[in-house]
Amino acid sequence: MAYDYEKSIRPGKLPHIWCPGCGHGIVMKGLIRAMDACGLEKKNTAIVSGIGCASRMPGYLDFNTLHTAHGRAAAFATGIKMAKPEMTVICCGGDGDGAAIGGNHFIHACRRNIDMTYVLMNNYIYGMTGGQFSSSTPTGHLASTTPYGNPDPCFDLAKLAIGAGATFVARTTAFHANQIDKLIAEGIKHKGMAIIEVLDDCPTTYGRRNKFRSVVDMMKRLKEIAVPVTAAAKMTPEQLEGKTLTGVLHKEDRPEYCENYAKIIARVQGA
Amino acid sequence: MAKKIALLQGNEACAQGALYAGCNFFGGYPITPSTEIAEVMAGELPKIGGKFIQMEDEIGAIASIIGASLAGSKVLTASSGPGISLKQELIGYACIAEVPCVIINVMRGGPSTGMPTGPGQSDVMQARWGTHGDHAAIALCPASCQEIFTETVRAFNLAEKYRMPVQVLYDEIVGHMRERIVFPEPGELEVIDRPAPSVPPEKYKPFDTSFGDVPPLAAYGSDYRFHVTGLNKAEDGFPTTKAELVDAEERRQIRKVECPEARADIESNEEYLIDDAEVVVLAYGSTSRSARYAVNELREQGIKAGMFRPITLWPFPEKRVAQIGEQVKAIVVPEMNLGQMIFEVERVVKNSCKLAGVHRVDGDPLTPSQIIDQVKEVL
Question: Do B161 and B96 lie in a common domain?
């Protein structure tokens, strides 16, 4: 029997705003399956986003949902989680939202190791505003504000998250639909800050400018650049040139922020 | 039993007022001259099981309190100068999403870094118009440490009752001054919590106006689930661009504060020797302390002076100020800025009386003699 997505979607809120060929819908389905697999209760789950195409996702989902301001998802989510640590808090959004304008909130949420799961859809571009380069647009690529090629170096978002202190960091792509839910579910179960970067496609504003003839071409590229971390261990640097590691890139146990704060409360009240 | 009495700094009184009002979440970022509020809250909140978090920046601080408020907490942040400028983005968010929160602004000089350790009153128009877009504003301006306590309690009450951000503005002088505080007993001051939804979860809409202009707000993590956005929204909380819905929502959000009943509830003024006054000094915050001294001095010299002190700056007490304008020969407005509230007074009194300002932005307080000189000159 086909999986029932409807039970997690708010009645009457579809169709979504995403363009044909956009990977955000694949990610949303993965998120729904992951939340289901973890047995999350709707009333005890909050899904928080910023601004952008990917950030419209919470509106379609029948949970406590908060569509915040540009870049601020992690900071709003931190307030919810601190106020009610018993809730499961999930952030979702795009690369420009999460790592450029929201970069400061992002790295500090990682540093605190607060128990949240952040699904970061990296489609290399500001899609909603019409295709301006983001902090993850590859150098040399074309965007509406880099008509001569992007002069900026770009972030490796997973490395950024690991460097900032996130205790679970994974990466997959919109092509690898069956891996998305498994990694998000693992992130939700992980106690601490979990970042799941999903390399995504924006055929409308990124693909067309960068010589992808079709959505299929973009998906093929995502398939080709992805190398599972396990396979990469046996590959030479030459073989890994231009590739992106996928799977669980980093996992460690470190005290979680709200649990630490609960200990402070217990200590102060006990004194 | 004798009441608890303490010698407290204004910022400490603010924190104590917040705790009295039931504040259980503080998100902050250090900035002079407001930092002591965060320091007290960091120490006190864990004792009552509340939460304190120092965020990575000013925007993160207000974001965290909005999130916590949506999860049902009574929330506070505090800042000054450039910090308040940074918070404007999400003050607007709290306006449109109608999220109760209290923002303390311990005013210093400016613009930009300005004079971090000096007093100022140059944020009074920012408190009204600082964030972009049309919106209502509630801003309170206490003038003493005791009043900082009580006005902070009132700020929480108004935030919860009207479901919106409320700002408390006081300047560095009262923020850092120490005065005797008499702690009200529990129950002595009214403490208001946001009304809970009366409809079952499946019927709940976060912006349902069938209960009046202030729709009840549920909490995340309760039996109610709902959507919140910073976009113009319909009563179910979802974005809309339908002209009639956008227009109705925008107007309601202003009406809930500016209708006569709400104004009567929110406005608060002190009138001093106004009945027979020929000249009134309209002063707010610490400047009113010099103004009161000046009025007494002028009375001794035979000049019929009085003082009008708006404790609620926004909404501005336009009706009463217009009446005073009809009664007196002149209104003098002393401010620690180069002329801000005086324009609001001018708008309201029109040409019914003479109007003059006294302004100072050099980091020192306005003195009674400066006010006296201006009163004599204008008469």
Answer: yes
Interface test with A, best of B52, B53, B54, B240 (most A CBs within 10 A): B53
Cβ-defined contact of B67 to A268 (cutoff 8 Å): no
pLDDT tens digit string along A69-113?
Answer: 999 999 999 999 999 999 999 999 999 999 999 999 999 999 999
Evaluate whether residue B196 is within a structural domain: no
The helix or strand, by DSSP H or E, that contains position A263, with its residue range, turns out to be helix A257-270
Over the stretch A171-215, which tens digit does the pLDDT of each residue have?
A: 999 999 999 999 999 999 999 999 999 999 999 999 999 999 899
pLDDT mean over A118-129 = 97
Domain boundary among B136, B151, B182: B182
Test the B interface: residue of A60, A72, A81 with most B CBs within 10 Å? A72
Q: Is residue B217 part of a domain?
A: yes
Both B51 and B178 in a single domain? Answer: yes
H helices of chain B, where? 10-20, 35-44, 58-70, 81-97, 124-129, 145-162, 172-176, 243-258, 260-266, 287-300, 318-327, 341-349, 368-378
Question: Both tokens of residue A245?
Answer: 């590691």
Would A1 be classed as within a structural domain? no
Which tens digits make up the pLDDT trace of B276-296? 999 999 999 999 999 999 999
Residue B221 contacts A where some CB pair is shorter than 8 Å? yes
- Give the gap in angstroms from C-alpha B239 to the nearest C-alpha of chain A: 9
Q: Which of A247, A143, A141, A256 lies closest to A191, judged by CA?
A: A256
Query: With a cut of 0.95, is the ipTM above it?
Result: yes
| End residue of a domain, out of B210, B233, B264 | B264
